[in-house]
């Protein structure tokens, strides 16, 4: 299996600058997340088809190209939804600064920053790192020059209502929130079939990307939490997290079907991001 970065480069290079995904119907309407209280009203989210944005006039795009703010994106998806691969593709084409709260936390601890030291104290006690510390890390990263100049891609964060409200209070809000939507049965199959080669670090899948030979197959290992029981618990947590974000980002969340081929999923995302950029340029030009 090629690395996500290599795959991203191959797919992006094969796509033209214009939207490339084949037109395929995307279901829309009511979505009831798992983990919702019994009898609760279904949540209405916008599908990619419902939220297609009108392209800006050519003249407006030419005038606004140098003035429009960079694109800011949030992306979320369940375990094994393909979010990591799509983040690599987005980063490769749009040049956004990819920010993962988990990676950011580990980096700050490793470099011994003030936020990292505070987070480490809680982790060494077996406690969760308070939202205040993580939000502060994310805020400081988003305010760095590269993220301000190129735009940012915030990966898997925020995960709760309190985290999203903390970002809102800081004036941090995306232009678009992409939610990868993959059926549970496929997510379970993807996770349960994953295997790791402890020698090379390469990830295989028993069905979709099997090992090249018996020697490799004999040494593959499975993560302790890549079991059907554990992944179903993680999915329940994911749906509860997303449900808590809807009231904040309802007008920005767009579902994208994540059970298609990688390039088709990216094609749909690509069209959405391109339209969002054009809309920003159009707004600048008309102001």
UniProtKB/TrEMBL annotation:
Keyword Transferase: yes
Pfam families per record: ADK
Molecular functions per Gene Ontology: AMP kinase activity; ATP binding
Signal peptide interval: none
Keyword Nucleotide-binding part of the UniProt annotation: yes
InterPro entries (alphabetical): Adenyl_kin_sub, Adenylat/UMP-CMP_kin, Adenylat_kinase_CS, P-loop_NTPase
GO cellular component: chloroplast
Catalytic activity annotation: AMP + ATP = 2 ADP
Locations listed in the record: Plastid, Chloroplast
CDD domains: ADK
PANTHER family, alphabetized: NUCLEOTIDE KINASE (PTHR23359)
Protein name listed in UniProt: adenylate kinase
Organism: Lolium multiflorum
């Amino acid at each position: 299996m090629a690395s996500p970065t290599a795959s991203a480069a191959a797919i992006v290079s094969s796509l033209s600058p214009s939207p490339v995904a084949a037109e395929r119907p995307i279901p829309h309407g009511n979505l009831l997340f798992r983990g919702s209280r019994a009898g609760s009203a279904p949540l209405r989210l916008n599908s990619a088809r419902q939220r297609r944005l009108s392209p800006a006039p050519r003249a407006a795009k030419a005038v606004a190209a140098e003035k429009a703010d960079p694109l800011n994106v949030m992306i979320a998806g369940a375990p094994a939804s393909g979010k990591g691969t799509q983040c690599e593709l987005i980063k490769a084409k749009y040049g956004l600064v990819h920010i993962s709260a988990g990676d950011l936390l580990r980096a700050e601890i490793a470099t011994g920053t003030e936020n990292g030291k505070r987070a480490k104290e809680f982790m060494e006690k077996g406690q969760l790192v308070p939202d205040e510390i993580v939000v502060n890390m994310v805020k400081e990263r988003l305010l760095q020059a590269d993220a301000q100049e190129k735009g940012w891609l915030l990966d898997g964060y925020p995960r709760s209502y309190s985290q999203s409200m903390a970002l809102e209070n800081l004036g941090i809000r995306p232009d678009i929130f992409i939610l990868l939507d993959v059926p549970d049965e496929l997510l379970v199959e993807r996770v349960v079939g994953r295997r790791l080669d402890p020698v090379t670090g390469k990830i295989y899948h028993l069905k979709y990307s099997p090992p090249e030979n018996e020697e490799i197959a004999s040494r593959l290992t499975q993560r302790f939490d890549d079991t059907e029981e554990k992944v179903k618990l993680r999915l329940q947590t994911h749906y509860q997290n997303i449900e808590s974000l809807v009231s904040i980002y309802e007008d920005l969340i767009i579902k994208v079907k994540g059970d298609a081929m990688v390039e088709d999923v990216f094609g749909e995302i690509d069209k959405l991001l391109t339209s969002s950029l054009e809309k920003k340029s159009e707004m600048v030009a008309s102001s």
